Amino acid sequence: MTLSRILSAAGDSPVLFEDGRWWSGSELLTAGLTLAGRLAGPTAIVARCSKAASVVAAAVCAEAATVNVTYLDPSLDHASLGIRAASGYPRDRCGSDGPADAGWLLEERATAVSPLVAPLGEPSYSFMSSGSTATPNRIVRSVRATSVDSPRIADAVYQGHDGVVLAAPCFHLYGFSHLVAALGRGLRVWAVTPSASLSVIAAAVDRPEVQVFTGLPFHLDLVLRSSSTGVFSGLSALLSSAGRLSRSVIDQALAAALPLYNIYGSTETGTLAIGDARSVPDPFGYVGQPLPGVEIRLTRSADSDEGPLHIRTDGLAEGIIRDGDYLPGLTVDGWFPTTDIGRMGPKGLWLVGRQAEFLKVAGARVSCARIREVLLRCPGVHDAEVFGVEDKVRGEVPACRVVLEPGTSVGHLHGWCAAELNPIEVPRSIEPVDHIPRSATGKIMRWL
Q1: What's the CA angle centered on 95, arms 92 and 101, to 5 degrees?
Q2: How much is the pTM?
């Protein structure tokens, strides 16, 4: 079911609470249709949205006008990614009663008709990939793919509930899919900003009609580090995605008997699995069984039960927008190759790590490639591998393994890194090894 139909079915009933007011299904539907009616011919929309109501209006616009809408984080500068837009349209932002936070923008195109208008021949959404493993891309997802993804999310975690507090950003696919899933199942949604304080989160979930909290690892860490587990004590489901939960967060949540669920997915694939941390003895990295319609293939090495994950799903994105061009097709032999490493067991999937080119250190993106380049510039370093390790405060920090030439000390390399790298880039640990396993193409085999 499309978002437009969900809102139409809701009618005048309140469905979304944000910034101190309720939005009914009819109001959100009207806001999106108003925007669609003001488009001057074929175009593509860029929506710099921070509010859930604005995200919904943009989605309805895309559905009604059969265009593509790209969602951007308004706090980030996307000019370096080649995303340029004409500013200030429409200036009244859906009318005086419509969502007012989004910068509704038209895609700048040299050609008269943009291939982004409807690259699939149907309305679509574009979300930016996280950039955690590479430069962020604009991932094109049809409305159909979302209509497949959201109901199975709802079946897994929203069935039988009345309300959800949504702290995940709705301009990201994770938050968007759960917003649609909750609305489609008839839940009322209380939307709070992803940067919400502990007091704001506590006030939002302190309602008898709220049984679910959908957020980020940051939110769980915020609550648990403050010893305020009682904030979540009355909930039936505590959902987290957009990053692997730390072992300390999981341990504290389970010690407080919190119903913790870890969600696995990506912008390209949609949601793939949802794991109940209470259901297995070792919940660190556990994401559960694949959801209906999802297949996960693990390619093991000869001496390990871990390996890269490949995905086949009916909720897969259709393509990528890169440098203004639409590039269809994301699969190789019918499978989407992820950058994730995992292992399978009778209870489902555990995530072990990522084939990451970038780390998230205290919220900042750190390039493994840059650190490796600096290491290799140090006299006496023959080879190097850089990766991330768990850190209770910063989420993850860089570490490395190095092949040193005779006479080169680890202490010398520590000094080199301190002088050549930014503080958040300095490896926490440096491990000397005899060799670093590589494939025939020279790529590091991180799962070995």
Answers
A1: 65
A2: 0.76
